[in-house]
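Holo model, 3,4-dihydroxyphenylalanine. Inputs:
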Amino acid sequence: MADIAQLEQETLAQIETAADEAALEAVRVGALGKKGAISALLATLGRMSPEERKTEGAKINALKDKASEAIAARRAVLEARALEARLRAETLDVTLPAPESGFERGRIHPISQVTDELTTIFADMGFAVAEGPDIESDDYNFTKLNFPQGHPAREMHDTFFFPPDSMGNRKLLRTHTSPVQVRVMLAGKPPIRVICPGRTYRCDSDQTHTPMFHQVEGLVIDETTHLGHLKWALEEFLKAFFEVKALKMRFRPSFFPFTEPSMEVDIQCRRQGGEIRFGEGEDWLEILGCGMVHPNVLRNCGLDPDRYQGFAFGVGIDRLAMLKYGLSDLRAFFEADVRWLTHYGFRPLDFPTLAGGLSG
Ligand code: DAH
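Output:
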């Protein structure tokens, strides 16, 4: 009898102080398991007289029920506590800045950035993007663009030629993006309004020239486009690109075989120390070549020059990047030095938009 009261006290105390679910399970096994203390008491019933069994049996069963209930209650408490601790440990503060991932550490090269910027600007003006191959035919790179055979302008391009094929034709690495104009005109009828960004190649290397560089070509052909449209489009582009409200431009007569008249465009700037600012100052900086597409080019590309007309322009993307982002040595662009890219590169999530700002 004393046994039962003591066992009850001890068992309930152990249940109450079990620190976690594993400890509680050990207590349960010690009391109610096959070899547990309460189970052992129950086993003594068989040896009792019927009267004893009646009274003792009731007490032992009551103890068993009490212990079971206490264990269940304690288990509920411990489970709730464990859940709470886990929730506290696993909380995620969604207002904290995201930890830097590999994606965040990567950088967009200034050339890609500037290409994205100018594509955004021209897309907003209704231009589509056209592309052509880096390996071109002599015909598309020169002849169709009105460079006659033997014309000195061909030599000025410092062309990388491939060995001639069995027909004697030499492929080449395109020296400018202008052959994409040819491809666009041959592929479809006006109205045409495209820009053609891409890689170009010339055998040349110094601080401002690399054998591989980038240009963007522009081409607009329809029945009415004139030089005034060319001036407007270039002014809008340059203002948007350099992110200035106003920008003075100067058109100088020039020569390109594929345009007539041909012009070079200078933009107003101020040179201060090593820095250059656009949209102010008294200095001029040459920025691009342009003109009205030569009737011979239209004809070579299957368009009737008495019906169609339009303008073209060509800009060096690397030069735009150097000017806008103050980079002085073009060769560094292609040295693949991660330290340079980390410094001059752009964050991948800051994609340029006209609404959100081009350069972030
Ligand atoms: N293709 C010329 C170059 O490489 C650039 C250029 C000038 C393109 C005038 C044009 C243009 O479309 O009209 O140097």
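The chain has a mean pLDDT of 92. The radius of gyration is 41 Å.
Archived with the compound record.
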